[in-house]
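thoughts on both lines:
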Amino acid sequence: MAAQFADYSPAGAGYPPSVLAVAESAPAASDMEVDCAAPPKAAADKPKEGAAAAQADSGGAAAGAAAEPYVRMKRKMAILMMSYSGTGYGGMQIQPEGGTIENALIDALFAAKLITKENHERIQTMNFQRCARTDKGVHAARQIVSLKMACNEPDVVSKINAHLPEQIRIMAYMRAPRSFNAKNQCTGRRYQYLAPSYAFCPTGKMTEADLAYKIDPERLTLINSVLAQYHGTKNYHNFTSRKAADDASAMRYIVSFTCEGPVVIDGVEFVKMTVCGQSFLLHMIRKMVGLTMAIVRGYTDLSILDVAFGPAKLDIPKAPGLGLLLDACFFDVYNKKYKGDKDHPPIGWPELDPAIDAFKLKNIFSKMVETEVSEKVIYTWLDTIAAHTFAPSVGEGGEAAAAAAVEGGPAAAAAMAREARWRRRWCFAPACAFDGGCYSTVCRDIVEQKNRKRKKQHNPRGYGTQKWRKRPKR
């Protein structure tokens, strides 16, 4: 290397002696060993020894075995018709704490590998809808649900039923259009209420002798005359909870409401009430049945129905959910639209009526009778009807609204109820009854005082008043 420095220096004397000495002491390029292909291994890359190496090998093998290839599940819109007994369940709609019919259904679908884990955890990802949300303890014979699920599996019904309890059964399955919605496309529902005959016996405290009461044709005619008052479009805000009289969603249309019977099941006489309508509110049917029992037993008369459909608030007894059954759901518009289409058969399955009737008799009606005989649910509830006064409250217009309903019709009554609710916001009198209008001096003075205080809070400097003067321009 000293020779190299000397060659590039003029006459070999261009570099100082110190630089040449360092160059002479440096090793030659041929003597240096450089491995450019493989860099030196770090301490962490040293091979493992003993038990650590064996544990790492076994862990890697287990991870490789657990990693399965991802298989995409092809899901299509489907319709399921199910029958169930609501005894022991908290209703139809899924709840985070579980214990409902939908919780059991979703678990069965996931166990049958017809939905994904995400669908199981988040029900909205598969467009799940049901025709009716039955209450706690309410049963169903032909409940219809729609959802996206794997439809290319053979014998879907048997796969789902294998993971369901005996009191919940899938009766039928079919493919549906992509935009199908079981709730929105259902044009009508039919409910049945099975009540013991002694629920319509004359007024009085229930005794053991009343259990043997047999209904006669005259009383059956009276029941049907009361049920006929529900026909047509009415305001059912008193037959549910948290509904105002002028709420448009309180208007419901009832096609028919009849009572048949008597029928004897396991030695107990029952009557069967059947109601058909477009849609129903929460607790609506149970309150319709409860008010009918109160009228027939003599606690009130037919005139109470005019008050119930009016704007005044009324406390109506609610019959137990033990005897209520969702019997059928109708899809008249859908069946008419796809009439004759082989790919979209009509929703109904009349060929399954014998199997559904057998399920109703074994799992629903027998459970109703068994529970009523052992626990006396309806028998005990009948004594609570006497606690209801059936007097309209003065909360939503009161007597003034009731008078307006008689004189000016439902429109005048609804206007009076709206005015009463508006005045309720501004009335501060201690003894104000909100009976359609409060013009007391106390209310007027307090309202004006509050308005002045509110304006002062929003306009502390008094802009726009005589207190504030605009600066003159210079």
